Amino acid sequence: MALLIPQSRQRLMRWKNGGGMTCELMRVPEDSSLETFDWRVSVATVQQGGSFSAFTGVDRSLAILEGKGLWLRLQSDDVDAGRTQSLTPRDPVLRFPGEINVESTLIDGGIVDFNVMTRRSRFDHTLERISLNGRTSLTLATPSPGDMIMLYVVNGSCLILAEQQRLHQGEAILFDQEDSGCRLEAVAAELMVVRLFAVNSSTLA
Length: 205
Fold this sequence. Notes:
- The structure is a single chain.
- This protein is mostly beta strands.
- The protein has strands at 3-5, 11-14, 21-28, 39-46, 50-51, 58-66, 70-75, 83-87, 94-97, 101-106, 111-119, 123-140, 148-160, 165-168, 172-176, 182-198.
- Strand 2 and strand 3 form a beta hairpin.
């Protein structure tokens, strides 16, 4: 059965490095720590630049939802000169290892960003932004047991047909293999689509 994640179920908490606040949509397992989770999805409001928290063994994806964006300097280690790039709402999702050093500077004022993290020994993920204009029907399916899909509404609203559940801005819903996919309709909406893929332990040998 699909799991609705209204704003009342989302948890406001400090960043791992204490430098700001984030709204955690979901962390799995629910009782895990920031050092032991399998995957985590969150939305952060950023009012000043600074260093990203380090997450060893974790792959991250980042997208800008609101604001002008960030300048990011990414370094694999202290010897690496690194690279600097901008990340704005118009740019593709940025994926990077959680271990690397990342320094951020606001381009022009505060931003809101969307974060996906997966522990690479347990899960992999993709993140994409979908805009629906006009009455649109969209079907999303989980390909394998253990895989999941999360939808988050950035703007507008959408109707999940099987549950007859309408999602509004700031709400999310999680589907797994037992739900056999998700069909939704929207007149005008912007969604973040998170696909989570369970890692087969045999592939790690």
